[in-house]
Amino acid sequence: MTLADPATLRTRVEETGLLWGLVGLVALLSLLPIGRLIVEGLAPSGQLSATALGKVMASPATWTATWNSLTTAIAGTILATLIGGTVALLATLTDIRARNAFTFCFVLPLMIAPQVTALAWLQLFGPSSTLLKLIGTAPPLGSRNPLYSREGIILLLGLQYAPLVFLTLRAGLRALPKELIEAGLAAGASPLTVLRTVVLPLMTPPLVAGIALCFVSSLGNFGIPAFLGIPGNFLVLPTLIYQRLAGLGPGVLSEVAILSLLIGLIAMAGILMQDVMLRRRDFRITTTSSAARPFELGRWRRPVEIGLWAFAILVLAMPFLGLLSTSLIPAFGVPLNAKTATLANYAYVLFEHAASKRAFVNSFLMSAGAATLIVLICVPLGYFIVWKKSRALRLLNLAAELPYAMPGVVLAIAAILLFLKPLPVLNVSLYNTIWIIVFAYLARFLVLGLRPVISGYLQIDRTLEEAAQIAGAGLPRRLVTIIFPLVAPAAVAGALLVFLTAFNELTVSALLWSSGAETLGVVVFSFEQGGDSTYASALAAVTVLVTVGLMASTSLFAQKLPQGVLPWRD
Amino acid sequence: MTAAAALLAAAPAFAQAPSGKLVLYTSQPEKDAAQTTAAFKKAYPNVEIEIFRSGTTEIMGKLAAEISAGQPGADVLLIADAASMEILKGQKQLLAYPGARTDGLQPGSFDADKTYFGSKLITTGIAYNTAAKEKPTSWTDLDKPSYKGQIAMPSPLYSGAAAIMLSTMTARPDLGWKLFEGLKANEAVAVRGNGAVLKSVATGEKAYGVLVDFMAYNAKKQGSPIEFVFPKEGAPAVTEPVAIVKTTKNEAAAKAFVDFILSDDGQKLALAMGYIPAKPSIGSPAWLPAGTKINVMASDIAAVVKATEADKVRFATMFGN
Q1: What is the reported pLDDT for A551?
Q2: CB contact under 8 A, B226 and A333
Q3: Would you state the pLDDT for residue B14?
Q4: Which of B61, B191, B316 sits opposite A231 (nearest CB)?
Q5: Which of A44, A47, A493, B100 is the most buried (most CB within 10 A)?
Q6: pLDDT of residue A1
């Protein structure tokens, strides 16, 4: 090849342009907010000073919270992996019935915000349990709630994030060629041996991606440790940060910035471990779909089905019924029965309260917009990271974890520091518009879209794309016609994760919303804080129902979509 | 003379009627904040009021970030407690308003330097579930063995009102840290905020709770099985103060907002929302049994601000595991 070859030259220019465009974009989304925080931590008000750093490092509370963060995040991740992994294997590789319905139900808990899950479980176990009162087995007044503990936090983190592992692993399992399993079984190996020697080794990338997502999510979770940890003064880093903000003295911002960077470092260590685990082997597989269910359960089918459904109903129905029963009573502590049940709370949030109505539109548009943009960024990004092994982007890939791992409140503060003044050159101000929230969503949730896409690339054989390149197709064309269809299942799983998480988030928008740019999370939080939990529950319940409706309606035209695009459909 | 000129001559006050944009940061509950701004708009139709509503913690965080970037976004603040205001005052972020009408306000409810002014009185007392065995009347009742394992209280680490309560009560010789040691021995649980205490008590998870007055009474009105007492040693109070931010670009409108909150109309609005107004002459809310003389526990705000950090740490260590 010589430089004189115009086609090659054009291709080079296209690739380089796209590559540096992506580098700039990811740096803007991840490095910029982090950089601004580092400046705040080390040089508050423009002068270098190590006082904040020294204060944070010398405080025993910092290290207790760090230890608590590590233990709950690791144990919660192990629990989520065991649950999500087992369920994904059973639901994808065996011949259980009603698989679509089950998958749908298992993914749903991701739709319920962590603080709602926490409240629901607390109510469930306490003497206050509307449900237990209904069946007359509520514990006596004043019993201690067992969930107020380290173990309680681990349990709920595990349940909350099991669907993350499930979704990423399932996207990988769908691409597993059935011939491999059948060959193993035909050679006389037991199903368990095949699982251990064929399936799991090939499933390392999606499994590790799911585990990494789980770990980072648990580390940054605020809702669960806030509700379950505060009563026992069991603090993790995100709750410690919130407390520091509450105690607001001068210089607190620099301390908060440093504590957030500490969370970021732990998250990065987790992601580096993931890289090490994936570096050693080759995981590529050639086919893209396998509809066959190689493992027949035989007489075990019914017990397995009953077990799976019982679990899904426990994890999904419990919090949701708790939410529903609270939303139907006129006030707390009123028993739910035919006489007391009321729809007044729903009427108020749906018809009377202007901000709730606006929030639905805002949250939907912002979440859908963020999900779409993130997929558009992640597909070419994954291509350069995995197939082109671009060094600059591999490093940025690490940086992208930070905005997701740190508490939302801190990312919001970074966004305020960045965008308070009008943008230089353009002279437009993003502050107090929806765009500052969209920016924060893109920065925070990029990782959620990127992890599944990267694991998708690790699984796909490059031959098709290389053939197209030799035939002279430029990169943009290859991306649209070959690469995107190949990674579509993983990409859509990522988009879905982004949408569900953004639709429910509260901590980012709590500081960034403004009149007219409310999000659902902000309105629910406002009700909750003023003691109007019945309104909060009603609004949260409507949120869940709307999302279920959306997911179900996408299933209607599933036939028209490429196979494997909808994570909850076969 | 045209009609318009006649009007102007007749009403000189209108000549300098405030106008333009005014940004309010408030921690009032959703419904109350909407009512406050609507009433203010009615009184000053030329002012365009914009609002940001969140918890006091979030508001202080947002303000700190804005101050750090050199441009506070709020013109006026209406937040839960005087201690947060005192911190801002210490950072020289508040504008004094010597011309504010403080006559008729509860003594001690506003800052002597006229930088922030209490708008109402929110006291903290003891709420109990109607199924509870005991009827508490004093703070020290909570230390009795019969209350063991039955008490919820708001954590001072999250609630501004609870932080003020802690520093006010521990400074009193008759209560002091002894009271909290007793609570600790009685396995009292510190939950996240007042909303969580209300839930705990109304639903019977705990029989007794340290709680703000209006929340207990509003829940009772809606049918929750809950009762409320003002303990005989007195009830610590927060005042939901209003203040002007020093960097305001619309001083006239900001002053108008303070005037409105302290005016009889503004005080009647607080009463209509179910709060005890800062002006005793306005009356008291319907839920307050007639003739109740609330014994408000005096707080030395400057001392509270000084003590609060150390008190919070001590509280956290004490109720830790």
Answers
A1: 77
A2: yes
A3: 45
A4: B191
A5: A493
A6: 47
Q: Is residue A25 pLDDT above 50, yes or no? A: yes
> What is the tens place of the pLDDT at every residue in A472-496?
888 888 888 888 888 887 888 888 8
Q: At what angle do helices A354-382 and A6-26 cross, to 10 degrees?
A: 140
pLDDT tens readout for residues B102-115: 999 988 889 999 99
CA distance A328 to chain B (A): 13
> Which residues of B are less than 8 Å from A233 in CB distance?
190, 316, 319-321
Tell me the CA distances in angstroms from B82 to A34, A67, A177, B117, B211, one per residue in order: 33, 35, 67, 9, 18
Is the pLDDT score of A193 beyond 60?
yes
Measured CA to CA, the distance from residue A453 to residue A386 in angstroms comes to 10
> Is the predicted pLDDT of residue B48 greater than 90, yes or no?
yes
Which residue is listed with tokens 């251990």?
A: A196
Confidence check: pLDDT of A250 > 70: no
Report how far apart the first and last C-alpha atoms of chain A are (Å, whole number): 45
Residue A354: phi and psi, rounded to 5, are -60, -40
For chain B, give the secondary structure using H, E and C. Answer: CCHHHHHHHHCHHHHHCCCEEEEEEECCCHHHHHHHHHHHHHHCCCEEEEEEECCHHHHHHHHHHHHHCCCCCCCEEECCCHHHHHHHHHCCCEECCCCCCCCCCCCCCECCCCCEEECEEEEEEEEEECCCCCCCCCHHHHHCHHHCCCEEEECCCCCHHHHHHHHHHHCCCCCHHHHHHHHHHCCCEEECCHHHHHHHHHCCCCCEEEEEHHHHHHHHHCCCCEEEECCCCCEEEECCEEEEECCCCCHHHHHHHHHHHHCHHHHHHHHHCCCEECCHHHCCCCCCCCCCCCCEECCCHHHHHHHHHHHHHHHHHHCCC
Instruction: Give whichever of A54-63, A510-519, B201-210, B241-250 has the largest mean pLDDT.
Output: B241-250
Residue B58 and residue A409: Cβ atoms within 8 Å? yes
Integer Cα distance of B194 and B211 in angstroms: 6
pLDDT beyond 90 at B118: yes
The confidence score (pLDDT) of residue A392 equals 81
- Binding-face residues of A in 325-344 toward B, CB within 8 A: 330-334, 340
Flag whether pLDDT at B1 surpasses 50.
no
The answer to whether the CB of A213 falls within 8 A of the CB of A447 is yes
Q: Which residues of B touch A250 (CB under 8 A)?
A: 91
